[in-house]
Amino acid sequence: MIEFKNVSKSYGNGTKALDNVSMKIEQGEFVFIVGDSGAGKSTLLKIIMREEVATEGTVVIKNRLLNTMKKKDIPYFRRHLGIVFQDFRLIPTMTVYDNVAFAMRVIGAKEKRISKRVPYVLDLVGLGSKADSLPNELSGGEQQRVALARAVVNNADIIIADEPTGNIDAKRSCEIVEMLEKINATGTTVVMVTHSEELVRRYGRRIITIEDGKIRSDDISRVGQKREDFVLPDLDIGSKRAAREVDEFIRSYHSDRRDVNGGESDEQ
Ligand code: ADP
């Protein structure tokens, strides 16, 4: 499904971001890619998405050789992928419903199908009641779930999630993993990138660790183990404060907006 053979990637400035990486991910697998900042995780994802091309080695995804793929074929190839970007990339002027529907509209889906599929997917990520909200009316965690809904709405074969780095609430990370597990249970391949080793150790999944552009370990020892086997102390949720700050910011932003648009003084 996803195969890297002796892949290296050097950027124009001489930085070698990946160094002789070989790995194979089968259909239906759930794989965590972990590593410190600068290890090469984003570069690996960009190569899978065909945003970057390997300098050496070969990359085959869904039986397509990415190295030599023509520009015009890239959008078709990307239809196999559902991507949850670090910064979500939601369209601020569109409702939650339209943000998700948009992904279907760009591939020419019919409105009848869209009106069935979008509510189903929003329910799947627990946002059924937020369809008419705008992104800035949602918490950070809810925005991330909209991004996830949009990634899965077209029934992609591979879901790629690039977890936001920095002050992300640990509870929120677990929530996203659990939603990805639900999606994976339907046969979709999931690749999730994270910097948190603590997070990945909670799940019975394959863990590929990247260090200085190389695969340091490819660990399948936890695969198949049950959740109960991973009873760990609570994650450090010191970052809860940061999540609260984001929520407060969103709330105040929202009330400012109401003042601007809804205040009597604005009416002509
Ligand atoms: P990670 O996602 O694990 O933080 P990256 O793949 O972003 O790692 O980066 C790996 C290395 O490649 C880092 O040294 C980074 O500075 C470098 N790098 C990433 N993108 C570029 C780029 N576009 N141009 C030059 N160097 C880059």
In words, what does this structure look like?
With 268 residues, the chain is α/β, with parallel strands linked by helices. Helix content is 34%, strand content 22%. It is built from eight helices and ten strands. It has helices at residues 41-48, 74-78, 96-105, 111-124, 140-152, 170-184, 197-200, 240-262, and strands at 2-10, 16-25, 30-34, 56-61, 64-65, 81-84, 158-162, 189-194, 206-211, 214-219. Strands 6-7-8-3-9-10 form a six-stranded mixed β-sheet, sandwiched between helices. The site of adenosine-5'-diphosphate has 12 residues, from helix 1.
In brief:
The protein is built from eight helices and ten strands.
Helix content: 25-40%
User: What best-fitting shape do the alpha-carbon axes yield?
Assistant: globular
Uncertain spans: 233-239, 249-268
Strand order of the largest sheet: 6-7-8-3-9-10
Count of extended strands: 10
